[in-house]
Amino acid sequence: MDYQAGFFYVFSAVLLFSAFKVITARNPVHAVLYLMLAFSQAAAIWLLLKAEFLAITLVLVYLGAVMVLFLFVVMMADINIEAMRKGFWKHFPVALVLGLVIAGQLITVLWFGFPSMTVNELASTSAMHAPDHSNTYELGLLLYSDYLLPIQIAAVILLVAMIAAIALTLRQRKDSKAIDPGQQVRVKAADRLVLVPMPVTPKPSAAPAASEEGKA
């Protein structure tokens, strides 16, 4: 076994462990952190497979943006963990059925979806380009030519997710005494000070009170 196979088994073991902890962690913050670890190990495996573009995209897009956004939402959304755990066993049968269906679909795609190629066909396919050929350049041409519309749709979806995350964490403080600057600009002098007319009342003299005290 060479060193590449050794790295592959190490990265795969850490990836499986972190993926298992994602679905079994009790704290949502810990689940997000384990998911970030899983993405990093998947990026390392793609580097071993010489898929540099996919590895860099996974690190920059998911670890650098999407997962940080997930972590921000989980920490600021104030999720009631106890209330979520109460309905676990109630929805467990539905989740189990959906998990089995998704697992069956993945196994079907992996088992029957890819065409089988002989060793000679694989050798001829790999010999089509030079060893120093950049697959990132070819992927860039393919993404922004044939798949331009799906790229734009994915960008809009990510933008909507970002706006939704900001809307979830935006709270209106009730104890805030901030004043709207627009109201300050439109204010008038009559709104600041109001003169209320009051009748003048004479001040009672102290002479009657003094005479009554002298009589007493």
In words, what does this structure look like?
With 216 residues, this protein is mainly alpha-helical. Among the domains are: 1-79, NADH-ubiquinone/plastoquinone oxidoreductase chain 6, subunit NuoJ (Four Helix Bundle (Hemerythrin (Met), subunit A)), CATH 1.20.120; 86-116; 137-168. The chain is built from 11 helices and no strands. Helix 1 runs antiparallel to helix 2 (28-48), helix 2 packs antiparallel against helix 3 (52-76) and helix 3 (52-76) runs parallel beside helix 8 (148-169). It is elongated. The model has no long low-confidence stretch (mean pLDDT 77).
**CATH architectural type of the domain at 1-79:** Up-down Bundle
How much is the radius of gyration in Å?
35 Å
CATH superfamily of the domain at 1-79: NADH-ubiquinone/plastoquinone oxidoreductase chain 6, subunit NuoJ
Number of helices: 11
Biggest sheet architecture: none
Globally, the shape reads elongated
CATH fold-level topology of the domain at 1-79 = Four Helix Bundle (Hemerythrin (Met), subunit A)
Under the CATH scheme, which class of the domain at 1-79?
Mainly Alpha
Helix and strand run: HHHHHHHHHHH
Mean pLDDT level: 77
Residues in β-strands, percent: under 5%
